[in-house]
Design a protein that fits this description.
binds guanosine-5'-diphosphate-beta-L-fucopyranose, 12 helices, single chain, 46% helix, two-stranded parallel sheet, Rossmann fold
């Protein structure tokens, strides 16, 4: 057998073995979703409730600052959660990352260090840590396999966030090695969906475009200004798909290796802009502001590991954008922001 095929078979079998070893969560288990008001955390809550979990605990940022070690330890000591989904993070789009690197590295390192240490100290059965596709080298071969981590230079616009997320992955692996914990890490691609950040300056591209085209339509603006050249490619995953994948892995995967979560296909930013323009019903012009950064040229994830475990994304991009736009209109998101 070809050496690569044989290697792949060995990897697949070891993943299947780890899948078989993992335990499903009791529907009454106490589950802490850290970051439940964000895009990912709110999707996890929806997915957990739909799956019949009845003992979900949450704390708002105001009630519990996850950067405060003592507060986090007190919370874990009092609540003793069985499972933790670590979805709390300081996140943002390309400009927010570029302009606030200190906040991105400090907040994320503190949140991860405190929650992971508390999960170990207070006997959490299993923790799922959410990383990001920006942990991989800027010029990684495409599609990006999990093994490419730490094999090259990072993208400069989000190095601070990436370093913090890499630290979180390594912390989980180190605790598993030294303490025998079950802390798994997943790497989602670019996400979108309900409860995203739709702020014009700090958001990611997909929510930014929904907002820009919507406002341009209602205001009859002749043009919409987008950032960069429009030539980079990005992969987009609906957050409800991500939440399903996280539940699936929490109940079926105990391996040491990180797992990419994506759709396996990407789209050029220009194409995304045309698609959103059409879905929103805007008829004006698109102008590209090339003084704004492009970021990494491409970051398409290789999702073969996840597929081998038995999970694939279900929500097509066009459908996901349409339902997200419908949600924005129902919630009057853009009107409330003005
Ligand atoms: O989604 P985004 O902000 O971040 O930008 P990244 C993706 C691409 O869309 C870039 C372009 O090439 C932007 O220049 N773009 C065009 C726009 N118009 C706009 C606009 O109006 N707003 C925004 N935001 N972008 C982030 C990282 O990188 O990806 C984070 O900074 C994180 O760390 C996240 O990992 C998933 O995809 O470049």
């Amino acid at each position: 057998m070809h050496i690569q095929k044989r290697l792949w078979l060995v990897i697949s079998i070891s993943f299947m073995a780890s899948a078989a070893a993992a335990q499903s969560m009791a529907r009454t288990a106490k589950i802490f979703v850290a970051g439940h008001r964000g895009l990912v955390g709110s999707a996890l809550i929806r997915a957990l409730r739909t799956a019949g979990f009845t003992n979900i605990i949450t704390r708002s940022h105001h009630e519990l600052d996850l950067r405060d070690q003592q507060a986090v330890f007190n919370f874990f000591a009092a609540q003793r959660p069985d499972y933790v989904f670590l979805a709390a993070a300081k996140v943002g789009g390309i400009l927010a990352n570029r302009d606030h690197p200190a906040e991105f590295i400090y907040d994320n390192l503190m949140i991860e260090a405190n929650v992971i240490q508390a999960a170990y100290r207070f006997g959490v059965k299993k923790l799922l840590f959410l990383g990001s596709s920006c942990i991989y080298p800027r010029m990684a071969p495409q599609p990006i396999c999990e093994e490419y981590l730490l094999t090259g230079e990072l993208e400069t616009t989000n190095y601070a966030y990436a370093i913090a997320k890499i630290a979180g992955i390594k912390m989980c692996q180190a605790y598993n090695e030294q303490y025998g914990t079950k802390f798994i890490s997943v790497m989602p691609t670019n996400l979108y969906g309900p409860y995203d950040n739709f702020d014009e300056q700090s958001s990611h591209v997909l929510p930014a475009l929904l907002r820009k085209f919507h406002l341009a339509k209602v205001q009859n603006a002749p043009e919409v200004v987008l950032w960069g050249t429009g030539t980079p490619y990005r992969e987009f995953l609906h957050v409800d798909d991500l939440a399903q994948a996280c539940l699936f892995l929490m109940e079926s995967y105990d391996g040491a290796e990180i797992i990419n979560i994506g759709t396996g296909t990407d789209v050029q930013i220009r194409e995304l802009a045309e698609l959103i323009k059409e879905l929103v019903g805007y008829t004006g012009e698109i102008v590209w502001d090339t003084s704004k950064p492009d970021g990494t040229p491409r970051k398409l994830l290789n999702v073969e590991r996840l597929r081998a475990l038995g999970w694939t994304a279900q929500i097509p991009l066009q459908e996901g954008i349409s339902t997200t736009y419908a949600w924005c209109n129902e919630q009057r998101v853009f009107e409330r922001m003005n």
